[in-house]
Structures
1.
Amino acid sequence: MFLQLGGESFSMAVQALWVNKLRSVLSLAGISIGIFCIVLVWTFVDSMEANINKSFESLGQNVVYVQKWPWEFSNDYPWWKYMNRPKATLKESDLLKERLEAQPAVDQVSYMFRFYRRTIKAEGNSIDNISGIAVGHNYDLINPVAVGDGRYFTESESRLGKPVILLGYNVAVNLFGSTQVAGKEVQFMGRKLVVAGVLKRKGKSILGSSEDDSVILPIHFLRKVANLNRGGEPSIVVKGADQVSIDDLQLTIQGAMRSVRRLNPRDDDNFAMNRITMLTSIISGIFGVLHMGGSIIGAFSILVGGFGIANIMFVSVKERTAQIGIQKALGATNAFILFQFLTEAVILSLIGGLIGVFFVFLGSKGISAAMDIDVALSASNFILSNVISALIGLIAGMVPAITAARMDPVEAMRSK
């Protein structure tokens, strides 16, 4: 009975739309625009958050960065104490590695030094403002380095600080016009270096940075040609073992690092332990606010759409008053009439919502193509939009359906 009633209600809803095209379009425009606005905001915000979190994946999920500056500041810690903290040194990295070697919570320890604004030259071409990192040999075991042409550094090259370099995809193309450049020479930091390999192309992240425009050096080579105590951003990078929580890993590192720096039990930590969850929690908070703001704006549009659905249903009840009287005379109950009109209202609202979602789908494809980022309508947003549409239809159709269900059959049949 319910399937038959649903089919009849759908048929009546479509017929009402078809017979009164202009009225239907104007009435459904509200719910369509409302669903379009709110789902578009959800889709864009969720996609941006996913793209940013994907950009942070290169930092490692189970990795802790021991640094001078924290990624998340505390109001209880004076700023001048941050300023007075020493930078993480290569010697401290070696000492920390010795202390953590026997710890089952730790998998790898490496040193990383990030540098900026350098110039690289080759074959008469020059690129300014090059950034990059200098790393220990086992850094590849913490954050895998995807090499296209060529290879990663050998252990002897890393240990002896040989003049070798890994070029980002764009760096290789701009210098040599090709990525098949392993074995060729470049001039960097006043020295001639041999290209060990070229990194695979990754494209620009949502944050605007790109590994394609950077280079990678062995840390022991950089130590020979630059002062690691001046400029740059040094870090001791520690990767946890499998099945070890990031909190347990951080506690292990904290004790070992305090031992390396010979801190007294009462002394505060003079180093920061940063992890990816710090960044993702900040991003989630920001996008949560944007999500709520977009939802509030879309809610007003949906409210207007609900009035449009109610308008269609009141007109439908008035036009079918005689039919309602006949149905009641033939034995139709009030609940049957109520369900019939509520079903019609929900179907009308769903049609308007699906139209809005369809335009969101087209809009997401357009944004992806125009901005070169991945924007996609998720299944959860699609389902949630249909649930909202159905609820709006149910609420908007309640009063007209109750009005129809309470009609006197004799008076209804006499109407014209």
2.
Amino acid sequence: MSSDKEKIKQIFNIFWPLAISWLFMAVDIPFVSAIVSRMPQPEINLAAHSVVYPIALIIEAPIIMMLSVSLALSKDKKNYRRIYKFMMILCAGLTIIHASISCTPLFYLVVGNLMGAPKELLPYARVEMIMMIPWTWAIGYRRFYQGILIRNGHSKQVTIGTIIRMSFLIGVLLIGYRLQDFVSGTMTAGAALSSGVIAEGLFCGLKGRKTADRDFEEGELSELISWGELIRFVIPLILTQIINLGWMSLGSAAMSRMINPIASLAVWPVLSGLLNIIKSFGSACNETTLSVINREGFYKADRRFTFYIAIFSTLFYAALIVTPLGRFWFEGLSSLTPELSDLAKKALPMIFLVPFVNTYLNFYQAILLAGKKTSGFLESLLIYLIFMISILYIGILTQKWEGIYVIMIGMNIAVLAQTLWTRFRAKKIIPLFDHPK
């Protein structure tokens, strides 16, 4: 029987490649913001990007859960092929939606009217939307095969794929920077984001197909998940991701209706990118927990490991506030103007609960997923959304604060409420995994 120390070491060996992958994924937007801020008309292009990116996230939201679905359900070749078919159908439908918004008058309805983006941003935003048409399909394909690789013990391949994506993203950003007399910041951003996920998707697909052919048994027809069961399993996850990512568009729309909107929209991608880096370690706890939770005797060790990661994430966040790291991020790397940098630095301390709480949120979400209680995801996200909408409404109604301050405070409160509810729902099934050995 393994000691707790040995179990934590095994958990860490699963965790670190996933953490690196999440960290690299988190630096996408900071790299994009850093280049766009150094190109012509930085404030306009950054603000347009902060409108487009949340819309792209909403469109791709239903496909984000494919990693969890393939990790949880692809146990043999028959189930693998069924989930693959489901993924491809879903990706095709979402890509049609993205293309329709980008290339038809729907763009003005969605971005201009629903999002309330300032008129001067619309031409820049539309260019980026068009450049990101391949984005959703590439991400769905990539995440499906990432789940296959993680399930079969090849999480390091996921990290390699992320490095490939970052290489393509940075390469295209640098090309756009060199050609800044001919291309806009938003065109460069859209091309970089799309090329990166396409390259990563091709790599993960190549490695994932080989893994499935080699490691999966054919499986029994009686164990094939039915279409009805698959739909019931994924619907709460899809709705959860739509709400989870949709609040970013909601936040952009709300900031557009508060005082000093362009400044708030300009610093939002820089701050949200930094927040994703802070949350990346906790986010990796989701797949890590899902990988080990069914192993006998691993629950308590994984819970302790999650606490260590929560503390580390909080200390990393604190270092950004009390050391020159924060100033370097905003003024050096992101190249914000002094006014925008000051706005961002004042907003950062307002999310002081998020680094710690987010880690436990991912831990409890993995328990719900392992127990096939995915309805808990939707319930907790509805609670998050209620808090966010209430706080954003107060900000719009009062017109006393910059939108970026309101959204950061709202996030801090909403994620705490979401995590408390997720913990409440997970406690009911923890006994299934809390084995004594």
3.
Amino acid sequence: MKKLVSLILCLCFLFVLAGCGGSVTTDDSAINIGVIQLAEHPALDQSYEGFMQALKDAGVDAQVELKNAQGDPSNCETIVNKFVNDQVDLILAIATNAAQAAANATDTIPVVLTAVTDPEFSGLVDSNEHPGHNVTGTSDLTPVEAQIDLLKEILPDAQNVAILFNGAEDNSIFQADMAEKAIAANGMKSTRVSVSELNQIQSIVESLVGKVDAIYIPTDNLLAEGMATVTMITNENKIPVIVGEEGQVVNGGLATYGLSYFNLGYKAGEMAVEILNGANPADMAIGYLPAEDCELIINMETAKELGLTIPDTVLNRARKINE
């Protein structure tokens, strides 16, 4: 009798397990996404937020693990190796150094990048039109020429412009090259000034006081993180700074033609959804935001601190912050 009761109990237990089979396998079938973000600053944060919104809008139920490298490229390798070991289904890499670390760590897990100016120039894809491998995503190439034209429009008498950028980041080198040509095309002289660490920013910017009429900073992750240090010096010394994106304006830069990093991340999220549904990243061209996603933004508090009168031709088409 005892054996019969035990057998009946065992059979009941097996039936219960069978009835719960769907929930037992949930963890195994869940979509896992690893996100590596190079640094914490508004543009990159907005890229992540846009990506997550795209997943939500598409109804993708994913477990997402966000890791921040705190601006240190050496941390990127450790983070992506963990994602590879965890066998995540997809990696989102935000900014150039993060994307390079992910691309070097795996040739099988799909990597979607965002906030990378030129993936081809950075060695991440065979070409921007035909990536060719497991990496694709969205470029944050901004209208550098238009930003330099804006500098000249606001400061028609400017002659000497410093291009301040991180010489260790391919993204920044690419834009510095573009800016140098645009400055020359506007009849001005340029000086390339490279910085590679946050603690160098103050002394390097101070060395430019009295030597330049303006400074141009592209969408540079290091300098975006240290923008408050830059503008603490430049605004006090009446040096206007034209920048690559809105977050840098919010932190004291004078003006930009900037794109929406939220929209950029959203577009990357849409591409990720396609990949999760079976699309091959090798065949997905790098995505760009349309020109209408770029916006002229001016920090009016900075203009006042600099003692500048912004031309009406600029003000009439600008979104003004800190009025």
4.
Amino acid sequence: MNHAGSFEKHKCNPIFGDESTGTMFDAFVRRQPDGKLRMDVSWRPRESFAVTFSDDGFNWSEPIITLGPDKSSGWEQIVNRNCVLPNPSGNGFLMWYTGQVLNGGQGVSKIGVARSDDGIRFERFRRDPVIVPEAEFEKESVMNPFVMFDGEKFRMWYAAGEICEPNVICYAESADGVNWTKYSGNPIFVCNPEKEYEQDRIGAVDILKEDDGYLMFYIGYRDVNTACICAARSKDGIGGWERVPENPLVMPTPGEWDADSCYKPTVVKADDLTYRLWYNGRRGGDEYIGYAEGRISPRK
């Protein structure tokens, strides 16, 4: 493995996506009841979502498109950056996703919801978005929804800010996954200007519920074009975030396929201290999915 940051990158990176597929980015990985890993991924040339499966996390099946854009909606010219969970009711799957209208460097991002009986063919739950930018700090974009069901309610962490790359992390709750109430104390997590690798802004998250609270993996931006992957802990998943001492976890490797930026972590825990992490790396205009793993010390 090649070493960059405190996590180790896989020697065969990138493990998903190549010149034939074009850009694959912002993956979401979870283990299924049958033991297989499911990866939902944004497929840029198709402006759509795709799903792929793996036994080991390195070798993935051919991608199948799960949901494409609805260009007639007025808010989702393209779709990307999704999160897919089994419906807590036991009826199929739910997907939260980003819909965007782009016009050069301008545009708007909103969050929508879709459902599926089989986890492959998704249809929109409603035509309108479920979360839109409203607050001044949300600027023109809410995107990268990450949703967790805690047994009583749906909890969403999402990125907000500029259309190109977001700036802050926000939080919302819902009883049904469709009607959301934003947290009055948003944003809940912002960049730390004293840390060079996240001095400009922060972005998309993946969160694991652990015995001692919540562990959040996020993107730290040195500048809008240079990013790495970090983590922080919180007892309640809303406030009191503490960055882990192992930061940054994954950094660009000069001269390699991810030389410019490492984006959007998605994580599955391997054992008490070891985390399996997939991310999209970029060099120039090429962007594919890579793998790294490492250890994070427990909260003291």
